[in-house]
Amino acid sequence: MEKTRILILGGTSEARKLAAGLAAREDLDVLLSLAGRTQAPANQPVPVRVGGFGGVEGLASFLAEGGYDLLIDATHPFAERISANAAIAAERTGIDALALVRPEWVPEPGDHWHIVADIPAAIAALGPAPRRAFLATGRQGAHHAEIAPQHFYLVRSVDPVDPPLALADVEYVLERGPFTLEGEIELMRRYRIDAVVTKNSGGTAAYAKIEAARLLGLKVVVIARAPAAIMTSVETVEAALEAIDHLVSPAMKRGV
C-alpha cells in the first residue's frame, strides 16, 4: 500500500497531539519538523527532523523531493515567517496544505488589556514610571526590555536568555507550560508584579497568566498577532484530524 506522506511543521503542543493522533495509522508516513530553537524539546510520537529549510525555495524543494502529499502548519501563532513560507511553498508544489491555528484570547470583563503590535511597543506601553513587569513572551525578543531599564523584569522562558539582559533589575524563571492559575497568582504575588507582557498566543497552556492578572487587577500588555498566511485553517486537533481524513481519503486521492 502506498502511504500518504505528511510533513507537520511543529513546535507546539497541538502539533505533538496531532502527530500522536496520526502515528498509528498504517496508511500515513508522518514527519514532524521542529525549528530547533528549544534546547530540550519534548519527546515526539513520530519521526522528527530539526532545523530550518532555507526559506521558501528550500521548503518547496524538500516537499517535492520527498514526495509529500500534505503539508500541515502547526507552528506557534507568532511564527509568521515559517507560516508564510509554508503557504507559498505548498502553492508552488501544488500539494494540499492545512494550518492548525489555536483561537486567539479575547478580553473578558475585569481584564485591563493594552493591545500593541510588537515587543518594543509593549515595553513602551509600560510607561516611564518604574513598574514590576512579568515578561512572559519567551526568550526571543526579551532583549527589547533593555530600552526601558527603569523597570524590574521577571523573564520566563523554556531556555535561558543568552546573553543575559543588560539590565540591573531582572530575574529569570525557567519553566515549560502548561501553567496553573494558582501557580501564576503565587508567582505574580511573590515578585510583586503590577504589569504582564504577553503575546496573544491563544490556547489553554498559557492562559492562566491572563486569568491571574484579571483576578489581581493587573495591567496586561497584549501583543497582537500578525495577519495569518492564506491557507485553509482549523482551530483544534480534532478538526485537523477530520480534515486530514478528508484530504487523504481514497476518493480524494483519485480526484473523485
TrEMBL record:
InterPro entries: Precorrin-6x_reduct. Its EC number is 1.3.1.106. Pathway: Cofactor biosynthesis; adenosylcobalamin biosynthesis. GO terms for molecular function: oxidoreductase activity. Keywords: Cobalamin biosynthesis, Oxidoreductase. Transmembrane segments: none annotated. It is an enzyme of class 1 (oxidoreductase). This is Cobalt-precorrin-6A reductase.
